[in-house]
Amino acid sequence: MDEFWQRLTNTAPPLDRVLVVLLAVLALGLIAWQPSWRVLRQVVTIAHEGAHALVAVLCGRRLTGIRLHSDTSGVTVSRGLARGPGMVVTLAVGYVGPALLALFGAGLIHQDRPVLFLWLLLLVLALMLVQIRNWFGVVAVLASAAVLVAVTRYLPVEGQTMIAYLLVWFLLLAAPRAVGDLHTAHRRGRGWDSDAGQLSRLTPLPATAWIAIFFLSTLGSLALGAWLLLGSL
After folding, report:
1. S-S: 61 plus which of 38, 54, 56, 183, CB 3.0-4.6 Å?
2. In angstroms, what CA-CA distances link 67 with 42, 111, 152?
3. Contact predicate 80/62, CB 8 Å
4. Of the candidates 8, 86, 83, which has an alpha carbon nearest to the alpha carbon of residue 54?
5. pTM beyond 0.85
């Protein structure tokens, strides 16, 4: 128990600025290269659906399950009022969720707590696993958790710090791309059931306005997260 607590509370100094930039470039490359994006897009989906689930519970809705699909789509089902602020906030947080998670991670890194971020991600995955309702989702969450367990168990603090930086950069940069994919789907007439499409039916704002809000929110998170990772070094 003492060893676990020591691992959990490990602090690490900021990485060299050049290395932080190189990790950002690596994350950008993983997002820009289509074969890796097709696989790693699932990480964004997990964060997206996790955000839906968390806010649904906070809004007093009853969470009934989460599904993750091999095409990197997902769905979170909760019971409650079909309209109203709770439903709107639950839908609106999905595309912003990965960026906010990354921003939280950047804040922990800024406080020299990158290892704590990795352990908190493991906790989130464990809580999500209880709510997963399909086999692919179970495999995706377990695979993500296995990677984090290996990182926290076998890598030294310096290696864990690098992984934490890479994960934060990846989520910060991937969130706007996911919104871009949503915009493309709507332009092609395939966005009726998307978060933006549902929000357009629940609020006076059209889907394009919600997509713009998602995009500006993720860009703002990227700017603030980059400042936390780079600006104060």
Report:
1. 56
2. 12, 34, 27
3. yes
4. 86
5. yes
